[in-house]
Design a protein that fits this description.
disordered C terminus, Rossmann fold, 15% strand, 7-stranded mixed sheet, alpha/beta, 7 strands, 12 helices
């Protein structure tokens, strides 16, 4: 790792993104309020954010992503979701800051050090629903599948959230995760997704520090969210971060002009696109690799 690289580990990205949630929360016209974000980000988060000027200029994308996921969670919980599983939960504080029913079970899965840090910072706070924290490296396939099967038996209507996670996966790993989630009979999966064209832009702008820290940006399927269809998932919603940020009035003039262009919805790999997708479990399917 270069001495100039502020990111030492993939978990540092959680500190960095928490800064943008804090900045949004402190606006008079905030679209969401996260009163814990500033504490969770800490000094390290501020140092990382200052050292990543491209990300700061495009903080609207993180604000739009947070707002969109908030909307999906609120809607689905109102419609009967009884468990939310947050994969690579990082410093997300939704079970503390959102209006959620006390009966909801919220399961956070992340690396032990991240969960320990979060528990320490939020020790004096009380969540609005039941929170279970599971220390787990999601690359451990056997442990991951065992956890999914257990949680699948303990709830009737489960929604999985993977925010800021699968962009770091190889395509094979993303496919394997999709199969595991489908096999556990989880009903919905909410994830962000990036087009190949946008991935190239991000790799050039912020990919260097992440790659040096051992977490390069990788996953951007040419098929868009339809990539997941062969693994048991049907696309029911796709929302552009750019168009959402325009709706929320978080774009600069130049980006506002771009937002006037039609939304490709992730269907055009040669067009920069990033969005939040809602996938519905269509049942486990057997995928046979194409042979030549």
């Amino acid at each position: 790792m270069s001495s100039a690289n502020p990111i030492r580990h993939i978990s540092d990205t959680a500190l960095w993104v928490a800064v943008y949630r804090a900045q949004e929360s402190e606006r008079a016209d905030a679209v969401f309020r996260d009163p814990y974000a500033r504490r969770l980000a800490g000094d390290r988060g501020m140092q990382i954010a200052v050292a990543m000027p491209f990300a700061q200029r495009h903080s609207w994308s993180y604000i739009a992503r947070t707002w969109l996921v908030d909307q999906v969670i609120g809607r689905e919980v109102h419609q009967g979701t009884d468990m939310v599983i947050n994969l690579a939960a990082g410093l997300d504080s939704r079970p503390y800051r959102m209006r959620l029913p006390a009966s909801l079970r919220w399961v956070e899965v992340d690396l032990p050090d991240m969960l320990n840090y979060k528990e320490e910072v939020l020790a004096a706070e009380s969540p609005v629903c039941t929170v279970e924290r599971v220390p787990l490296d999601l690359r451990d396939a056997a442990a991951r599948r065992a956890l999914f099967q257990r949680l699948g038996r303990e709830a009737k209507r489960v929604m999985v959230v993977s925010e800021g996670l699968i962009v770091y996966f190889e395509a094979d790993a993303a496919a394997e995760l999709a199969r595991d989630l489908s096999a556990a009979s989880f009903r919905l999966w909410v994830t962000d997704l990036t087009s190949p064209a946008l991935l190239k832009m991000l790799q050039k702008a912020i990919g260097g520090p992440l790659a040096e820290a051992g977490s390069p940006l990788k996953f951007a399927p040419h098929e868009g969210p339809e990539f997941f269809a062969r693994y048991g998932w049907r696309v029911v919603e796709r929302r552009s971060l750019l168009h959402t940020a325009a709706k929320l009035k978080r774009l600069s003039l130049g980006m506002r002009l771009l937002s006037l262009l039609p939304d490709p919805g992730g269907r055009k790999p040669d067009k920069p696109w990033g969005g939040v997708c809602v996938l519905e479990n269509s049942g486990p399917t057997r995928f046979r690799p194409t042979t030549k």
